[in-house]
Amino acid sequence: MKILTILFLIIINIIIINYFFLNNYQRDDYGLSFEEKMKDYNTKKFALFGREEFPNCGFFSFYIVHLGCANKYLNEGYIPIIDLLYFKNIFNKGNKSIYNPWELFFHQPYNYTLEEVKKYAKTIKYVNCTQFLKRPNEKTIYYHNDSINFWHNFAKKYTPVKKEIMNEVEIIMKNLFGYTKNILGVKIRGSDYYGRRYHSIPPKVEQIIPDVKEMDKKYNYDFIFFATEDETVKKKFVPEFRDKIKMLNPNLDKDYINRIENLNDQIKAYLDYVKNYILNVIILSKCLDIVICRCCGSAAAFILTEGFRHSIIYNLGEYK
Fold this sequence. Notes:
This protein is of the alpha/beta class. The chain is about 45% helix and about 10% strand.
């Protein structure tokens, strides 16, 4: 009887250990070892893809399209590799960068790398992703828990945030908020007020402020994390909430970045700009409640979150 009990406990421990190692996707050794990957480069099919349609869109527009593309090619038996280096886009200034921005912030599926695949893989399919595939829908995802859960689990499994980025987020949040979790996230993207075609129509800042005040009155937040890149928006919003407001350092102005003469310095400055935006979205995803206008960065916050308690999503259509 004792022997059976011991065998049972050993089996249970093996199951628990295997489950942990197969499902803890943000562990230090995420994915496969280099030796394991080298075997795969000879036998498996890889789909290397970027997106040349609308190359000047923001990072999270690429993010949601590439999640859709990764899902498609995984279902077709390929190992997807996200390429923001060789496909022309705003992040590499016409293939002039030495970095793959995706791999600075997010893992590739199973931790293969773009350079390794191009160097060692025997079978590569090159794909230009388009908008027209199953992907997170930045217009509607907020209202469909099944869609949020699907893409959250997909991103957590196949394209988790790099550990060093998450460590940075933890340090930032501790410095901003201490140990409280009672935080309202508010995201007002200034570029939405420029009237760009297909972008969401946001309410005026003066309309958002009363909604935030009402939520704060009801739930008495310790802090309000405010994400914007627009000084005009900031000057209108911040004085209404004073000491409760917490923000990251503002992004560099895009016009300033474009005036940098040295191309390598310009690319680095733009990647710093992108990183700041990614940090903002990840911090928003960790807030207890959220108030946002519809956009790809907002959709990403819903994909990355473990769940919001309450939310307000402004969806007033889009510019034609």
